[in-house]
Write a structure and sequence with these properties.
- Strand 2 and strand 3 form a beta hairpin.
- The chain is 47% helix and 19% strand.
- It is α+β, with helices and mostly antiparallel strands and 283 residues long.
- The chain is elongated, with a radius of gyration of 23 Å.
- The strands form two sheets. The protein has a six-stranded antiparallel β-sheet with strand order 6-5-4-1-7-8.
- The protein is built from ten helices and eight strands.
Length: 283
């Protein structure tokens, strides 16, 4: 029992030490940069960034973007560049790390590799960050600027979020429905088509699934959430008689869409998005 307690204490102290290392490195780098010792500051900024990108420590969104901006600002002064290169952009949904990971997964021969994004509705937020020591702010992202990379490997399915706000570890999903669709029916997902449904709300979420092709190119599936949701009973909609044809058309379209494998995949993607990837408000 004593050995177990000692081990727990050791792990706790080690975790605290890493967190302190990140903060200490950034603070020391900030001081060096203010003293115009840009080369020494760059070394410390890079070490702080490496702590986050190697998953040694999870930091707040604000800390990640702040060290990214401070490092880029320091590098501009060091190399006399006019265009800063932000670490958060490199690791974001349009960055090299994201694109290289997809290429590596495809190179391994994995057949089920795709990304998805859910956006729209009335809940879009913008994120800004202040440049250290300056009055200007820089635009970082909106709550729509994130993509989830999904891949199936052997008998497991993995998801990893990419956005400008932070670094996210891959997570393994234990869901028989998800594994079955990804491993056994993914070709059908590629060929599935979702028809747009009539009588939909004006404000709604939309889903975009991008599947890299085995050769150059990609399959893009973009549709509204309500295309895969059953219309409300006509009595609840309060429609005039002249709307009957549109209503029955919506019901028929929903029934066709619900037979697709995309329809089986959607509830799982929504569940994982809302459970793991909804942007937090700590920024």
């Amino acid at each position: 029992m004593r050995k177990v307690l000692l081990l727990i204490c050791f792990l706790f102290i080690a975790t605290i030490s890493i967190a302190q290392d990140f903060c200490a490195l950034k603070q020391e780098a900030d001081v060096l940069s203010l003293k115009k010792k840009y080369k020494k500051a760059a070394v410390l900024y890079n070490k702080a960034i490496e702590i986050v990108t190697s998953y040694k420590e999870e930091v707040l969104n604000s800390d990640w973007t702040e060290v990214s901006i401070a490092s880029a600002d320091n590098n501009v002064k060091l190399n006399k560049k006019s265009k800063p290169e932000y670490a958060f952009a490199k690791y974001g949904p349009n960055g090299d790390v994201f694109r290289n990971k997809i290429a590596n997964l495809k190179a391994r021969g994995l057949k089920c590799v795709f990304t998805y994004q859910i956006a729209g509705g009335m809940s879009i937020s913008s994120y800004m960050a202040r440049l250290p020591g300056r009055k200007e702010s820089i635009f970082i992202a909106t709550s729509n600027d994130r993509r989830i990379l999904v891949w199936a490997d052997k008998d497991s399915v993995f998801l990893q979020c990419f956005d400008n706000l932070n670094i996210h570890k891959p997570i393994s999903i234990i869901d028989e429905r998800f594994v079955d669709v990804c491993l056994n029916h993914f070709n059908k997902v590629i060929n599935d088509k979702i028809k747009p449904r009539a009588l939909k709300p004006s404000e709604q979420e939309w889903i975009e699934i991008i599947i890299p092709a085995d050769t150059e190119g990609r399959y893009v599936k973009r549709f509204d959430y309500d295309d895969l949701v059953a219309p409300k009973p006509m009595e609840e909609m309060g429609r005039f008689k002249s709307w009957d044809d549109a209503y029955y058309s919506a019901v028929n379209t929903y029934q066709q869409n619900s037979q697709t494998y995309l329809a089986k995949l959607l509830p799982i993607l929504l569940e994982q998005w809302r459970k793991n990837f909804v942007p937090d408000k700590r920024f």
